[in-house]
């Protein structure tokens, strides 16, 4: 049976004011017999006896409750969740931004920039088919019109190349390249996948594959399709209930594995194609299907891709993440270090943070391993005062820093929805945790003994250890904060505060008056007057009402900015470091 694609195509300029060009009929894509061919002789390939080794990945180190999640995207090592609580950005496992403007979502992805610039955009598709961009890693901005999709409710999106993204909408598909959008009227591609020059979609008759650049269509007749994806080489992979088909060099779909248990949910992540086989997570490596017998996937789970090569399992609004790369050191870092980072290192060590060192990834901790040991354990200068690590947190860091490469103890992974949450919670080394065996306790005690001895040796010239520790803390804090000038702080005030705190108010933060209005000045007003409160106490953020208010922990009155979004974490830390450094003029 020949395949034919006769639809309505239009090219839409992205420049403001341009309308759609006159409809142009797409090329007749009738093909020869190869277009419909599925190999007649299935090749029986037994599932390999060797199981797939999979580990659960800790992605929510701060144990935040994200609510019911509908989609996820990963720009530059961040995790961006789209769900009932809106859009949430996680860096290093900690929530750093939330925008609850939209709370019902359908799809998400990181795509080439819609304006032709070099930095990719993170997009979410809401339940109404509108397209939203995550701007500045903080807020939502609707970009439906930019993609000429205002009257075309979007259902899916797929990256084709480094400058092209495809959208499947109710009635057709659209391809944007940063300069123009081309649309085709063909309902079959409302839910699509894509790679390179092609998009594909499941149909009642089988699978339809379309090449937008040439309008060439191939239709594969195949009953009971349960999954469609493109592999890392951009070859089509299709599952039915009990077989996996892969595209040959000649463009045929050939059965590569048959008799498999209930195959479904194909998705490519990195070099691997993940799927569900029966109730188990599995992966196709181009030759065989490998199953992970210890990972049970809920019946309603959807698999979502990750640029890291990991895979997400989304079931009943809850996310779990899995990796087939089994590095004991990475696993231990996720279990021990990531929770400490989420509690103690945000915001200074996010990308672009005031600490000038991005520690949101395992690779960055690996590169700085020796320096982290010195600063966090030996000198205890990080985090800078007044923040500090607990003994349990130092023990957690020491456990990873001292790790010799052997496999840490790990039980089997249970991926049912309820058990996933329990496993994730048990894996975290929170302060006060009881989940620590005798070996860990012994190592922590030994580390503490060595650390105490080192500290005693350094402070032999001091009257007592407490006085010396205080001196060291002040010196470290001063060094950490020394680069922050009032000019940097004043720039924040002029950008974010002066619209309310101008010359007409009780607190004038104008460029020429802000310093004298803050440093050493008592608080005033009905709720903050008296009590010895001071707006800025040089050297002491914990007693500076300015810092407490912008940090969201005021001792009186309301947090600031009042009624608006919180200041970026980097700005809050800049103010803190300026105060710690003595609030210099």
Written overview of the protein:
The chain is α+β, with helices and mostly antiparallel strands. The protein folds into three domains: 8-323, 7 Propeller (Methylamine Dehydrogenase, Chain H); 328-479, no CATH class; 482-580. The protein contains eleven helices and 30 strands. The strands form seven sheets. The protein has a six-stranded antiparallel β-sheet with strand order 2-1-15-14-13-12, with no helix packed on it. The protein has a four-stranded antiparallel β-sheet with strand order 3-30-29-28. A four-stranded antiparallel β-sheet has the order 4-5-6-7. A hairpin with a 4-residue loop joins strand 9 and strand 10. Helix 3 (369-378) packs antiparallel against helix 4. The longest helix has 21 residues, at 438-458. The radius of gyration is 28 Å and the shape is globular.
